[in-house]
């Protein structure tokens, strides 16, 4: 047996091992035990155990002797396979750290140079896993946790490494291995590992080029016509426009017909022109300071304005409604507003799974990492009354925040690390590779539809000019801007690539540029005829009819109710409308007291609120009450949600049992956030005038941590954006020994912000 073992046993054992990997039952029981022990790390020479003896025969003894002598070969085989699996996993976990993401090619700001070299870039990468050069041409069976094989189940180690490098270390970096959803991890692996999956047809490449032409030439046109105007241009990340259009195309293909967007100022005019499709002359006339305002109020700078537009999506030939929410200078403040509006639109059209209405949020890298409202908004995403069933986030990572270097702007490696708190996969992509960007956006849009979660993509780009067009960036970033001055624009790079591939020729490319330039020139000529600025043309959430006229009216319709309705509401408020429902003994006494008040024709705060809400619900007006502890009420006074004392999660909302055809009542405890939740409710209230949307502070003085929403949206929204909103703030406070903070909600601040007419006494 000795010559046989030394010559061919390794091949035989390898065949048995592969068979066992495919199906453990396909090999003899002794082999099954042997491989299980070897995989579990049994010491050399101890993996073999004889199976339960049925009969002792020469063949069984020979096999046992063979297995013991074959053990060293098998140990090496198993160890090598485990090493290869560890290597594959290392690329999946850490490949994004060494991907070629920076279009400038300078030291990647995401990794400090003092960090040790990554193991997958180490010169002794193989040695770390117990492999060496002689193993490179050996064929290894691939685990089920990778798709690099395509239709092949085994590959040489050299090819395994090459394919992993192509999947994880080129212009796309993928962070996903921290996700605890196996199905989602496998889906992501399949999207990025499958050989040849990132292929584009010539038609798709031409569409991408045309979109890049529009994005780039729009900025160049504005620069030629108004070189000394602030516009916060998109130069350096022109690929954002094809990226957004791709997300919208893919979402439309999956059934979405309403997209609500929020974004900062950078690139906003370009998005309005080339994504929302705002008339170019309406944008160009904003640069004319001689326009007279037709609407009351101050208006706002052009790069803060919103828009609402319904059009045909040319790729899917389906109707799509696009709304870009107006925002202040306060970065990320619009995030919860967009999510609240999205939730409302889903609620009103019965879209309980987010199949019809979705949100897209754009961010800058510095603000995404620096603003706490990003974290607050993420943490609403999976709470019972707040989910929007997934958001696509696009981070425009231009590697600078105004003048601040990223190394001084955050403590974590990436600006997108905040998204990990909700198990969101994060895609990093080099913005100078338009096809990689578009592919990532396709995956993000499809992933949002499939898994109903957040899908952030980070487009690593640069900012060709200063913070605005008048700013000098060389003061603070001299080396970066020396490199930027040498950088060839992405449009030029991509056009040269397609011309070299024969997808387009030079005359076709120049014709595409001339065609869009002509469109811009003609729109500019028309814009000179615009004499009046209508802010209402920039509404992000238009309400039906002429509500504006009555909005300022000091008259109020009669709000009286008949006693029969009040009595009925009071009786429901003091009872449990569900059978076999055990409530707390203390609550029974509270409900009994309410019933006695109804009989005595008196009310307290809680019962008066109950009657007001109930009467509106009868009229078909939806009510949503949100905030910290609002279901019970801070002062144990409201009790709008009853809890069965014997059954976990069994609750009852009596307010939804008042009338047969009443409007629904939503009451929901929020997370311990004021800024994020008030922003969300403001967004919810934007969607319809026929609802009562209320946010209650746990104590009235807590509104000051949501001051940005009050100061930038609620108070000036009408004057800046002709935006109407019926949000109601409940701010409980009083001199009740609760300390100096809870004793006052600072009503004088709200009085100061009122837009009183100084010449009219109401």
From TrEMBL:
<dbReference type="InterPro" id="IPR011603">
    <property type="entry name" value="2oxoglutarate_DH_E1"/>
</dbReference>
<keyword id="KW-1017">Isopeptide bond</keyword>
<dbReference type="InterPro" id="IPR001017">
    <property type="entry name" value="DH_E1"/>
</dbReference>
<keyword id="KW-0324">Glycolysis</keyword>
<keyword id="KW-0832">Ubl conjugation</keyword>
<keyword id="KW-0460">Magnesium</keyword>
<dbReference type="GO" id="GO:0006099">
    <property type="term" value="P:tricarboxylic acid cycle"/>
</dbReference>
<keyword id="KW-0809">Transit peptide</keyword>
<dbReference type="InterPro" id="IPR032106">
    <property type="entry name" value="2-oxogl_dehyd_N"/>
</dbReference>
<dbReference type="GO" id="GO:0005634">
    <property type="term" value="C:nucleus"/>
</dbReference>
<protein>
    <recommendedName>
        <fullName>2-oxoglutarate dehydrogenase complex component E1</fullName>
        <ecNumber>1.2.4.2</ecNumber>
    </recommendedName>
</protein>
<dbReference type="GO" id="GO:0004591">
    <property type="term" value="F:oxoglutarate dehydrogenase (succinyl-transferring) activity"/>
</dbReference>
<dbReference type="GO" id="GO:0030976">
    <property type="term" value="F:thiamine pyrophosphate binding"/>
</dbReference>
<dbReference type="GO" id="GO:0006096">
    <property type="term" value="P:glycolytic process"/>
</dbReference>
<dbReference type="InterPro" id="IPR029061">
    <property type="entry name" value="THDP-binding"/>
</dbReference>
<dbReference type="Pfam" id="PF16078">
    <property type="entry name" value="2-oxogl_dehyd_N"/>
</dbReference>
<dbReference type="GO" id="GO:0005739">
    <property type="term" value="C:mitochondrion"/>
</dbReference>
<keyword id="KW-0479">Metal-binding</keyword>
<keyword id="KW-0539">Nucleus</keyword>
<feature type="domain" description="Transketolase-like pyrimidine-binding">
    <location>
        <begin position="603"/>
        <end position="762"/>
    </location>
</feature>
<comment type="similarity">
    <text>Belongs to the alpha-ketoglutarate dehydrogenase family.</text>
</comment>
<dbReference type="InterPro" id="IPR005475">
    <property type="entry name" value="Transketolase-like_Pyr-bd"/>
</dbReference>
<keyword id="KW-0496">Mitochondrion</keyword>
<keyword id="KW-0786">Thiamine pyrophosphate</keyword>
<dbReference type="GO" id="GO:0046872">
    <property type="term" value="F:metal ion binding"/>
</dbReference>
<dbReference type="Pfam" id="PF00676">
    <property type="entry name" value="E1_dh"/>
</dbReference>
<dbReference type="GO" id="GO:0045252">
    <property type="term" value="C:oxoglutarate dehydrogenase complex"/>
</dbReference>
<keyword id="KW-0560">Oxidoreductase</keyword>
<dbReference type="Pfam" id="PF02779">
    <property type="entry name" value="Transket_pyr"/>
</dbReference>
<keyword id="KW-0106">Calcium</keyword>
